[in-house]
Amino acid sequence: MDGSNYVLNINVGGTKYTTYLSVVKKYPESHLSQMFPEDTSLWRRDDDGNVFIDRDGHAFRYILNYLRDGDVILPYRFAEFDLLLKEADFYGLVNLKTEIRKLMSVRKHVVIITEGTGTFHKTAYSSKVALVVEGTRNISEELKDHFKGGFYGSEEKCRSGLTKSFFNVNFRGSISVFLLRRGFKQEMSSPLTFAIDI
Fold it and tell me: What is the reported pTM?
């Protein structure tokens, strides 16, 4: 069977999709690919003759687009990462699972507090605390506004999308309390790291 020309109608949990057989068999080792053996009589079908897969129909949209284009494209503020990861795991799509985990890791606001010659320092700042902020919301700006007396007025970009701001070391505890009250949770103690989901 020529999978590149074979049009496949799929019913995933009640949601209908149409694609080429070659798309769902893009990764031969995957469970999804193995659902479509050469012997088409083994394919599970619904009453209308569509191949039936008893999984989440909405999530399959993103699975299918990934198979077509090789990209994970999700709507703004997508909130079903756990579900999508579970579906990718069920279909045995290892590369897709990796991409989803990457997206999950950056869908957070992270604040890393270091002192002296900490992780993100190029030189020693014995009397300063560096706040390394990553995420779409500029927590650094809010902190500078709240701790006006402690901000050194120096800031630099480090890595992609990260901002480093310098505060008086005496503000370390106060900054931690500020973040916790804003809903951040401490994820690491060394370096001191706080994060909040977007």
Answer: 0.56
Q: Where are the domain boundaries for CATH 3.30.710.10 in the chain?
A: 7-106
Give the span between the Cα atoms of 104 and 88, in whole angstroms: 14
Task: Say whether 140 sits in a helix, a strand or coil.
Answer: helix
Question: Would you say 33 and 22 are in contact if contact means Cβ atoms under 8 Å apart?
Answer: no
CATH of domain 7-106: 3.30.710.10
Burial classification of residue 43, based on how many CB atoms lie within 10 Å of its CB (0-12 exposed, 13-18 middle, 19 or more buried): middle
Q: What is the pLDDT of residues 130-177, one digit of tens each?
A: 555 544 455 667 777 777 766 665 565 554 445 666 666 667 778 788
Reading phi first (left if > 0) and then psi (alpha if -120 to 50, else beta), residue 22 is in: alpha
Radius of gyration for the alpha carbons in the chain, expressed in angstroms and rounded: 24
Coil/strand/helix, residue 128: strand
Residue 101 CA to residue 90 CA, distance in Å, equals: 15
